[in-house]
What we know:
about 300 residues; alpha+beta; seven-stranded mixed sheet; about 25% helix; about 25% strand
Amino acid sequence: NQELLEFSLNIALKxxxxxxxxxxxxxxxxxxxxxxxxxxxxxxxxxxxxxxxKAEGEHLDSQLTMxxxxxxxxxxxxxxxxxxxxxLTFSLIFPHWQAGTLPLSPALKAFFPTSIETPHVxxxxxxxxxxxxxxxxxxxxxxxxxxxxxxxxxxxxxxGSLIHxxxxxxxxxxxxQTDKKRPSREWIRIAKVKSDGTIxxxxxxxxxxAGYNDRMLIGIGNVDxxxxxxxxxxxxxYLEKSIHHLMRELMKLNxxxxxxxxxxxxxxxxxxxxxxxxILNLLHEADWVEHTGDLYFSLIxxxxxx
Length: 306
């Protein structure tokens, strides 16, 4: 009996750790665990955070809706109106750019296959421009999608690049692409690590190969330097001191002398994995920062780092 044979084989494979069930709901598919990418079974340190905030309040929710482009952060579990669509566009942050992943935020989850019990789901990415296909992985335990490291590198993307997602024409396929843009050298913020381990920003000419969010685009002077100074378990005190420092550095590039919250979110994630709600809550509670309207903030004094 073919059905009984298939059922028995699935039961046997389910009890064998060498095999991983990776099919979406309603479909049983198997993959050799040893052949799965490391990021599928082990969360990269750069994506872990100890700064998850459960702070609530209309002022925080209202400001999160002011982000230019959709918030794509797996630690921001609250969905906002207007995020459900057939096509979504969002900006990369440095940790996901480095890990070759996408966050499974509430809105993005609708674009990827899911499962009831299995922790991993294998599917196919389709490049919307070249039509090339390559495997992707939904990693439910860690709330991200893996498989994009090579794609990011081949396209020469930067943190802050805009990514477009839409559902594929076939089940199990997700179309991904960037904005059509002729590569050009542009003046952008470049992050560099100083000798004391802090980050500074300069405006320099850099090759830009795709459309981007102007507030979140950051060129990386030296990736290894940033990774060497990455803080995996920052304390609240370190977060506060870092945000103060980043505000002071970013204000130097702004003639108006203030900083947008979205710029701080992108910059803070060069130092540590930090969700946007955590940063906005800090900015509202700190006595050394002033909210100047919309998502703009300015320093009241510069004593925090002394």
